[in-house]
Structures are given as structure tokens and as C-alpha cells.
Amino acid sequence: MSAKSESQKIIELNRRHTFFSWSVQSTVAPLAVVEAKGCYFWDADGKRYLDFSSQLMNVNTGHQHPKVVAAIKEQAEKLCYAYPGLATRPRGELGKLLAEVTPGDLTKTFFTLGGAEAVGNAIKLSRLYTGRQKIVTRYRSYHGATYGAISATGDPRRLPVEPGIPGIVRVFDPYCYRCVFGQERATCSRECITHIEEVIKFEGPDRIAAVLVEGVTGTSGIFVPPDDYWPRLREMCDKYSILLVADEVMSGFGRTGEWFGVDNWHVVPDVMILAKGLTAGHVPMGAVIVSQAIADHFEERYLPLGLTYSAHTLAAAAGVATVEAYQEDGLIENAKRMGRILGEGLEALKEKHASVGDVRYIGLFSVIELVKDKATKEPLAPWNAKPEELGVMAEVLPALRKRGLSAFVKWNWIFVIPPLSITEKELTEGLAIIDEVLEITDREAHS
Ligand SMILES: Cc1ncc(COP(=O)(O)O)c(C=O)c1O
């Protein structure tokens, strides 16, 4: 019997003693990662991968950003942790920086450990501030896996753990390629927006605390909304005194070519939820930033929120360095520039391949949607496909990995979400690999 490789040893140890998320444990096939730099990482056997998902769409600065790593080292030498009742310089500096880079009068932050906790706390804050209970969210959305956040989520990850928290009301999404209203974007009456007002009326506007939606929908399909979508949501919320909460966990920190997804449409939400790109994966951290009015509300009222690791000192220092890295390296401008090249590349793939039904992109946030037939739009694997229903889609990730590309592949979607530091050469290299792998899916499609 041949000796086990270093990768095999690590994977076996992980598989025996640790759970892997969202999977039947016996079927997981992780890579064993030991090192990373910029847009690449290496497995324990020395194989290099181009990271086309920024890990979990969070390593926006690129891996091991030198400034962030240095800040973590420096802070770790001085003070790793102070309890949340104490003030620290990194915490204050990060709060100030976030007030500067977020739009409008978003001004005061409650720090969490990640996105889901930030969503849960945003729901609590919205209920406390308005005195109302209901939260409107969308079906094709993901907001995290704690009980509050998974309840707010629309995508099927919520189904096995339902019932969730009460008071969640869901509406449809701006998924123009498969519009539930049977419309086309160019000629529709924006039923995806107008029906939300109908739902609000039926649910009782004075019972609705917030409309909570992703800046641009992420892993539920990358839906770039029509240009009037966000401004009209803002108007609707103002009309009924409902808070507008933007979950920018995935679409924030330059991902869409602007600081935050909503900046593409110049809309200022009342509450913004942040995580992922806040520390670009170097250490865990999330945040909820609120408007001046909400901040003022709690000046004289009790704030019933708390976490042992809220505003963790090491994470706050990493956050400061990360935000400065976006500014100093021009990463958001690069995302916009590379986003144009990515868009052209994706359109070319759609033109060339029988199995590419749709491509959706904004900045470096994109997806390739695969179909059996461009005319009928029948998906190459069904929505919420079980492993045995994936068909040829099950071959895609192994084929990409074999060629040295790591990407996020789900159902009939291949996501392209690389670090914002990516170069044109790296982007072209990755797209060429996808081009090659699409030959496999084309075999199952009719042109
Ligand atoms: C839009 C959105 N919100 C919230 C979350 C939850 O974040 P976390 O996994 O850090 O809890 C995610 C995670 O993917 C997300 O994409």
C-alpha cells in the first residue's frame, strides 16, 4: 500500500474529529490548505490553486495581506483582548472608520463575531427602535445560520431547522432571468417591487419593523436589481416608517466595485450589516452600523445586546488595517476595473457555450448559470438539488480543482468572486480554466 500524502493525513484527521458545514459528512471532499498569498493558496502536497471564491467570499484584500498581518502581530504583542465594557483604541478607530466609509449618516456600530450574529442583533435593534415585530425578507436570500439569521434567510438552508423565530414575512426577488411574474426587465412594471407594497399592506405596515435585504444577493444567485429597485424600496420604507436594513455581509467592502452594494444606487439604509470583508477573513468579526436617529434613541434607553467577544481587540485592530488596505491599495477601484474585464469574459463564455444560460455580474461579484437548453432555460441541476440530482454539475468542481482553480459551485451555478486584488492576468487565467471545463457541461446541453 502506498504511503498517505500529507493532504490525506490532514483530511482524515479533520474528517474523523470535526464536522463540515452543510453536508452529509461521509461525502465531503475538502482540500487540505496550508499556505496562502494574494489570490493563491497551496494544499499540503504543494499544489497551487487560484482562489476564485475569495474562500467564502470574504478574503477581499487577498490572502495574508501584509498590512493586516502586521497589525494583528503588533496588537497581539500588546493586548489581545479587553472585555466589551472597556474602551480600546482599535475599537474606537474602527467605529470611526466605518462611520466614514459607510454612506449617509450611518454612524454608530455594535460589533459581533460574524455576519449571522450581526443579522440577529440588527433584527433586535429594529424591533426595539420601532416597537414593531415583523421583518420582511426575501425568498432567495441567505442571512446566516444562528436561529435569528437562519429564520430571516429565505434559501433552503432554513428548511431543516424550521420553525424559526416568529414574525418573518418573505417576498419575491429581482431574479430577472426567471421572473416569477413572467416579465422581462426591459418591459416589466417592476412587479418585484410593487408586490412588496401589497405584502406590507396585508401584513399591517404598523406591525413591520424592517425590510431586511442583501445589498446584492450573494450565494442565492447574484441578483443585480434594476436601477430603480433600491431607491423605490427606500421610498416605500419611508412611506410606512419601516426601517431599511441592508445586509452587506457579502456585497460590502468593495465586492461590487463600490464600498457597499447600496452605493451603486446611492441609497442610504437605516441599518447596515457587515462582516466578511470587514477583516477579509484574517480574524472573525461582524458589525451592525446604525443611523444617527437610532444611535440617539439609545442614548437614554437601555441597549439589551451583548457578546463576550463584541469589539474583540485583535479583530478590531485587524479591521482598522483592512479598511486602510482597501483605501491605500485602491482595491475598490481595482474591483471596478477588473469587474469590467470579468463582465466581458463572462459574456464571451455565454456566447460560446451551449450550457451557459445567463451570466450576472457587478464588480467582482458574479455567477454563471448553467442550463440544458437556452430556449427553455431548464437548469442543468434543479434548485436545491440533492447530491444524486446534480448530474454533470457534480463533475464541475473536481474538474476545476484538477486544473488548479478553486471556485464556489452550487446546484447549476458557478460563482466567480475573486479577491479584489486580482490582476488581469490572473482573471484571464481563471476564466480560461472555466472555459475548458464548460466543455463538460456543454455535452448535456442542446444549442
Ligand atoms: C449576505 C450574508 N449575510 C449573512 C451571512 C452570515 O455570515 P456568517 O457566516 O459570518 O455568520 C452571510 C454568509 O455567507 C451572507 O452571505
State the helix count. 13
Shape, per Cα inertia axes: globular
Which architecture of the largest domain per CATH?
3-Layer(aba) Sandwich
N-to-C span: 47 Å
One letter per element, helices H and strands E, the order comes to: HEEEHHHEHEHEHEHEEEHHHEEHEEEH
Number of separate strands: 15
Query: What is the residue-averaged pLDDT?
Result: 97
CATH class of the largest domain: Alpha Beta
Class by helix and strand content? alpha/beta
Helix percentage: 25-40%
CATH homologous superfamily (4th level) name of the largest domain: Type I PLP-dependent aspartate aminotransferase-like (Major domain)
Low-pLDDT parts are none
Unique bound compounds: pyridoxal-5'-phosphate
- As for the CATH topology of the largest domain, it is Aspartate Aminotransferase, domain 2
Largest sheet: 7 strands, mixed
Please state roughly what percent of the residues sit in beta strands, choosing from under 5%, 5-15%, 15-25%, 25-35%, 35-45% or over 45%. Answer: 15-25%
**Strand order, sheet with most strands:** 4-10-9-8-7-5-6
Radius of gyration: 22 Å
How many distinct folded domains? 2
3D architecture notes:
- The strands form 3 sheets. The protein has a 7-stranded mixed beta sheet with strand order 4-10-9-8-7-5-6, sandwiched between helices. A 4-stranded mixed beta sheet has the order 1-2-3-13.
- The longest helix is centred in the last third of the chain and has 22 residues, at 331-352.
- Helix content is 36%, strand content 16%.
- α11 (331-352) runs parallel beside α13 (424-442).
- The protein has 13 helices and 15 strands.
- β5 (134-138), α6 (147-152) and β6 form a beta-alpha-beta unit.
- It is of the alpha/beta class and 447 residues long.
- It folds into 2 domains: 31-64 and 330-442, Aspartate Aminotransferase, domain 1 (Alpha-Beta Complex); 66-329, Type I PLP-dependent aspartate aminotransferase-like (Major domain) (Aspartate Aminotransferase, domain 2, 3-Layer(aba) Sandwich).
- It has helices at residues 6-17, 54-57, 66-78, 89-101, 115-130, 147-152, 191-203, 229-239, 292-297, 313-329, 331-352, 396-402, 424-442, and strands at 33-37, 40-43, 48-51, 106-112, 134-138, 168-171, 208-214, 243-247, 271-274, 286-291, 356-362, 365-370, 405-406, 408-410, 413-416.
- It starts with 5 loop residues before the first helix and ends in a 5-residue tail after the last helix.
- Pyridoxal-5'-phosphate (PLP) binds next to α5.
